[in-house]
């Protein structure tokens, strides 16, 4: 036992010395790691639906998507029909616009904007944002620029798209509007994919189409769509249906969103 006492003393001295050294040592500073970049949400994968072809009807192009024949495009020579004075009485665009809920700083694309009839009327709802007025016909955009200058509207931005691509950056849109135009898209599958990419997660689409279910709507059949057909095409492209804002005199106002 007597021999163990000096040994225990030595052990205690060693422990106390080690503790004192540890307390006086400089703290170890770990290098800062670079911040982890925020995850960018990618659009959900969707299955490519093939086009089919067949004999063209009088108002169609003989190309079919989900069984629907695509209609011929109404070109810039028909601007007067888009700007007709009786359009408010027939279609109630002011009611449609009042039903479209947008933040004041939202960026909304008017796809197939044509003469800008809707673009200019919706621009006051986004005073700190803008309306990207997209068309594939330069003549339509020329008309739109002249009209914007006459009206002194500065938050409507003309934008030339392509038949299969909006030509917009990913995640750049809060919302999109399509008024009686989607049924004429010659490449709807590609355009829906382009729109899915351009919308932010939760971004909405407001789709106006003449009601295909209603024989009393005085529009050629290929220039109308049923709610069921629109849902089939948009939901198959990865969008989620959120509702039909009824009623308008002749049209559906369908709302979809990017998940």
Describe this structure in words.
It is a single chain. The protein is of the alpha/beta class and about 260 residues long. It has a single domain, classed as Rossmann fold (3-Layer(aba) Sandwich), CATH 3.40.50.150. Helices cover about 30% and strands about 25% of the residues. It has eight helices and eleven strands. Strands 4, 5, 6, 7, 8, 9, 10 and 11 form an eight-stranded mixed β-sheet that branches. α7 links the parallel β7 and β8. The longest helix is centred in the first third of the chain and has 21 residues. The radius of gyration is 30 Å and the shape is globular. The relative contact order is 0.14. About 10% of the residues have low confidence.
User: Measured on Cα atoms, how large is the radius of gyration?
Assistant: 30 Å
DSSP strand count = 11
- What name does the CATH topology carry? Rossmann fold
Largest sheet: 8 strands, mixed
Q: What overall form do the CA principal axes indicate?
A: globular
Order of helical and strand elements: HEEEHHHEHEHEEHEEHEE
End-to-end distance, in Å? 78 Å
Mean pLDDT: 88
Structural domain tally: 1
CATH class: Alpha Beta
CATH superfamily: Vaccinia Virus protein VP39
CATH architecture: 3-Layer(aba) Sandwich
Structural class: alpha/beta
User: Helical element count?
Assistant: 8
Low-confidence sequence ranges: 4-16, 18-31
Strand portion, in percent? Answer: 15-25%
Helical residues, percent: 25-40%
